[in-house]
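Researcher: Let's run the pair from yesterday's discussion. Sequence first, then tokens, for each.
Model: Starting with the first of the pair.
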Amino acid sequence: MKHQIFNDQTKALFRMVYDEATLDRNFYGRDHKEKLLTIAWNRGADQNITIDKDVFIFPANTIHCLMVSETFQLEQPQNIVAWQFSREFYCIVDHDKEVSCVGFIFFGPPKKMFIQLAENDRRQVETILQMCQDEFENRDRIQGDMMQVLLKQLIIIVTRLAKQQYINKDSLPTDKFDIIRKYNILVETHYKNQHQVKFYAEQLFKSPKTLSNLFALYNHKSPLLIIQDRLLMEAKRLLYYTDKTAKEIGYDLGFEDAAHFSRFFKSRSGQSPTEFKKINFTRS
């Protein structure tokens, strides 16, 4: 089934998909106009999920959050429940004080988080699913408001579980973790033009060393690697899905010239942009 609410005036879109034989997203093609975040719940057995050409195990009874620009395919889409929503429907940045998910389950580091549901958690998510199904039967003027409430509850549950499973609160209390989240948001916003940690440290009124110490507590990746990983991810996407040259991609990502971009790409991926595109074009 596929249900959705769309407001012609505000362009707000909320969609729920379940028990469907097809569920995928092609951001650089068919779906480019739909800027949707996705919360996907695997209700079946373990299956593969392909995200930007990389294959991951999507474990049974887990939830995974997908970004607007991620292209994905699922091995068994009929076992997936997906909630998809646009910024106009519910802006997680504007409502971060309510849900505290930005810079973590969304707009966070490249690490893929598959969030496990215990029996009680599963019942909560099933209740939200059932309530969403019921609300889609009620075509009234407050339907969108009710869906926003249910979506917010879902995001809060997923964020809380992700923190329990991926964050050590003893070594990284909330105030310190919020700095990391803010850093991730800033990187997502400025990575194409700002490649050095100093810029982000200044925005957060912290020293680069302080940020390095915090990230060591979190995931052992340096703040600089977070920036470089985001640049590499976007470079790969543009090489995968567009006809842009390495020179054009380097320019889009803020590199001074094509040679500088090529050196960066090869140092981080082990291949030149040309080699990478040729190998992946052959595979596809």
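Model: Moving on to the second of the pair.
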Amino acid sequence: MSKIHPWAYVNGRIVKSDEQAISLYDRGFLYGEGLFETIRVKRGKCLRLPLHLNRLNQGSKVLNITIPSLDKLETAIQSVIDANNLCEARLRVTITPGEHSTAGINTSSSGSPTLVVTAYQLPDLEPSPLRVITSSLFRRDERSPLSSVKSLNYLPSILALREARSAGADDAIMLNTKGNIAEGTTGNLFLRFGRILVTPSRDQGLVPGTVRATLIEIAPQMGMDLEERQVTKDDILRAEELFFTNAIQLMRPIKEVDGINVPMVKSPLFDHIRQVLEELE
């Protein structure tokens, strides 16, 4: 488990990370109603912060909840960086609608949104290539507007990861209701065919990641074609190389899917893409 840094931000205050500071009646605690972002801090600065804040804003519209202003979010984030004297870290921003105003499920809260920012030690940034399975139990619903929201209700990903670990694998690829590829449990999936990168399109039931957006933007500059489209399990078997992307580890190579070896792992082109992404930081 990643080490938790000692100071956190909770609703306008810097508090000890182990201090109980959230109401027992908070809608995020009671119902999983809320949003979160995981942000990489490098050399004391947040990477891809505008993309993260934009995703929070878009998610708030889907959930129809009020979130703090961008200025307040940036101030809260910076206060945690300063309080912990962070250089390299992982930040989590959590927002809920606040306290429940009455007993039972309803659509109202009784106060201001809850805003929490916590900081963690970074995990291994260059993990070993992954052995993954295709989750057979849990699927992303591409028909639901919630599929694109990074919400506090993370059960499908948690349970799919648990399924993978029980099977002796490191992670899982999640399908959508049509049986096509959606994403990994904590990141987006890319397939490489020569100099063509393929990733499931946004209508396939995935949470669109910040590194995914960056890679889509810069692929042509690297002389690569980028396709966002429906991806099938047969595409997985035909791909020369596979990798996940996420905000903390950038690119996570995959060496095996459902017991079948991936032809190439951490190829020179993979290393080049990672280098270009790192140079943008």
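Researcher: Give me one sentence on the second I can quote.
Model: The longest strand covers residues 130-140.
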